[in-house]
Specification:
The complex is a heterodimer of chains A (264) and B (350). Chain A contains 13 helices and no strands. By secondary structure, chain A is mainly alpha-helical. The longest helix of chain A is centred in the middle third of the chain and has 28 residues. Chain A is globular. Classes of the chains: A mainly alpha (264), B alpha/beta (350).
Chain lengths: 264, 350
Amino acid sequence: MINTTISPTTRISRPSGVLVDIWCVFLRELRPMLRDPFQLLTSLVQPLIFMAIFGPLLAGVTGESLGETYQWFVPGVLVMSTLFSTTMTGSNLLYEIIMGSHERMMVAPVSRAALLLGRTLKEMVPLLSQAIVLCSIAAAFGFRPHLPGLLTGFAILSVLGMGLGALSYALGIASRHQDWLFWAVQQTLIFPLTLLSGLLLPLEGGPRWIETVSQANPLTYVVDALRELVNGSFGADTLQGAVAAVVVLALGLVVGIRAMRRSV
Amino acid sequence: MANPVISAQGLRKVFRSSRGKEVVAVDELTMEVEEGTLTAFLGPNGAGKSTSLRMLITLMPPTAGKAQVCGHSITDNPGLVRSSIGYVGQKNGVSPYQRVRDELHSQGLLYGLGREESRRRTDELTDALQLGEIAHRKAETLSGGQKRRVDIALGLMPRPKLLLLDEPSTGLDPQSRANLWEHILTMRNRYGTSLLLTTHYLDEADQFAERVMVVDRGRVIADDTASQLKDTFAGDRISLTVTNEMADKTSATMRRAAAVSGSTEPEPRRTELASGCTRLSVAVNHGEYLLARMIHDLHAEEVNVIAANIDQPTLDHVFLNLTGRSLREESHLSLNTTPAAEPASEGISR
């Protein structure tokens, strides 16, 4: 091996570690949203439509007021909104892989874990912004959440969102040679996950098999936790929801970081 | 070599297909790149150029062999290698969602430049690469040539000692290519950056590279300056047109003169023309001197030369002589095919 001596004139200082790397990636991912906040507003349209249509329908069926209905329904919309937005984020990474910018990021001296964590952390920003706007609008129609409970619920939602985001990035990476695969899998999974979690309709009284399947769905526990929390209780549902969110996050990070390491 | 920015010994990359078939993409690559030089990897698509580059930038582990880039081992210290180099890939490095200035600033932060330093460097490169007018535009709105200029800026952002460019001008129109090269050479002169690029454009390697490594089927088959490669493997070709009656006498004179120049071509090639004339051509070294001598000798033998021509060799002649295939045709053909040695997926990360 030939010994090489490189002069130190162009020596480059490295970020002080993974945390700085995560922060750099987080800022990079956040900037397009800050530059164009209109995209955040458009993402509110779908959950608002659900609230505007399902809320009065459910109120009509149950005979309760719209405010009382929203106490049950808004947590479901929050979880659904989290599910829909975070599971799509992998398509951004997939697009960057196809276009080439991801390869440049992989050549930068940044830890692979940071490339994933920075992106997943960024998902918290639109997710929480949406949640705050949705709750504020619902409040105008009688939604009265218990504030500490709601904040705890937001924390659980954030953990869930990061986990789902990480899984979505892993799916985006896995689909890099066949981009259609991303949407095929995402669309195939998203509706069963939504419908078999009791987000939009109560599952009690339904067929036994639906209840059984829903017990394997982490969203079931998260939405139950949020419903408990907005009503001011911190019980078993909250604990189960928190655990479910942490499990999704752990799974997402393990799968996502592993995928990121093999993403070129 | 005193200070090689790249030093590779026996670098080898083998891909295994899903059916278990092995494809040798890079075979025993041994090379050194001197600091401050512009070196070109020249070869058709699928020759192993990009795979070699991807091993050197630590995106892909070698199957065998070792290499140091900017003094750091690609297998033992990939992070230090990445900290020391800039890279411009085949595709665009700027994200379509990002604004140009934001992406440059982010790149600086990713390389640990610090916020102020990153901003200063962004301003400097924006100015140097004339990106001012597009600095606040999203990358998806830029032309191919503009995106390439941004890519060069991204590659130079960390003030790398070595900038590696993977087919930087592929897909650009001639004007954009010329403009891009003007910028690359200006940046190189300004910052003294060593450059290693892969290309299948013969003229780029010929015109800009101080050293050309001709790659074919995973192997480096020639390595020298472009002019030396042409002298060694191709040479000039002198063509003379005379009347059919004078063809034999002319052929003998040309053969003698060519042999003196060191040509190994045994006999001039003959082409009978419709006008009762014959064109004879022979490969020679230093054709500009030899042509004058041939005409002088033929004049003494009372042969009237109707037309004379010297064809300067290109690197395509070099490739043709080395492999029996035309690089120009291979590159053209491979535009519509998938390179055999292109990896499905095999990356390493640390």
